Amino acid sequence: MTKFSFAEQLNDFKITSEWLARRGWSEAAGGNMSIRIDALTKLHEDDHIKLPVEVPYLAGKAVLLTGSGTRAREIGENPEPHIGLFKISDDGLHYGWIAGNHNPSMELPAHFAIHNALERHRPEDKAILHTHPASLISLCHVPGFDNSKTISDNILSLQSEARLILPEGIGFVEHELPGSLELGLKSAEQLTRHHLVLWQYHGLLATGETLAGAFDKLEVFEKSARVYWQLRAAGIDPVGISEAETRKTLAAFGRLNRY
Ligand SMILES: [Zn+2]
């Protein structure tokens, strides 16, 4: 196996995977992660694999991606055998394996499509995290919780700082085949406005400057969802913080324009 040295990124994979495993958010080999980087290595034309989607903003860039079937609990112990480095060709139409794990997650096209959108709209967000927290998946089974606004309004109003951290709310994509390009493309579209996208009946996609930063936002949303379920379990119909109060909080922190 060709080795690579991205100590900072590998440590980000390690720490975030440890936490995903501890929280029980990535059961079995569920979930996947990637980080976009600038790689100097040239991709040889013999190594070109055609992409099912054009990614012009990724031309010449590279992505570190978790391998197919890899488990968060094992990446958390030793990330290197589980992460592969893939380079995108200069025409943005092909990719090829460079180093590390050479059997990438089936979500590779989705990750590339999302990185392409991030590079265009929010280049500072270099990390993508996908995982399966039960409290978030459960929200998708509540009648009426089938769109971005309803979920954002009902869940982010349950804790004072949630809307402050996520003023734009949560993106939402209706159920799609796991690993499909459609899922990736719909998520990429949502991520131009949101840092988090809930995949109906499946899990969450989060972006950040680092994986740990994406995990932060995931934690904030998950905490509010847990408050929701605790209230429901106690037989209480959650009321939430009023919109006027939310606007006041956001205005005080200069984030009302992002609401
Ligand atoms: Zn998944």
Keywords:
single chain; 259 residues; alpha+beta; L-fuculose-1-phosphate Aldolase; 9-stranded mixed beta sheet; 9 helices; 9 strands; globular; binds zinc ion
SSE succession: HEEEHEEHEHHHEHEEHH
CATH architecture: 3-Layer(aba) Sandwich
E-strand count: 9
Overall structural class, as computed from helix and strand content, comes to alpha+beta
Judging from the principal axes of the Cα atoms, what is the shape? globular
| Beta-strand residue fraction | 15-25%
Tally of discrete structural domains:
1
Largest sheet: 9 strands, mixed
* Global Rg: 19 Å
Mean pLDDT: 94
Structure overview:
This protein is α+β, with helices and mostly antiparallel strands and 259 residues long. The protein has a single domain (7-258), classed as 3-Layer(aba) Sandwich (L-fuculose-1-phosphate Aldolase), CATH 3.40.225.10. Helices cover 37% and strands 17% of the residues. The protein contains 9 helices and 9 strands. A 9-stranded mixed sheet has the order 2-5-4-3-1-6-9-8-7, with helices on both faces. Helix 7 links the parallel strand 7 and strand 8. The longest helix is centred in the last third of the chain and has 23 residues, at 211-233. It is globular, with a radius of gyration of 19 Å. The structure holds zinc ion (ZN). The site of zinc ion has 7 residues, from loops. Zinc ion is lined by residues 30-31, 130, 132, 178, 202-203.
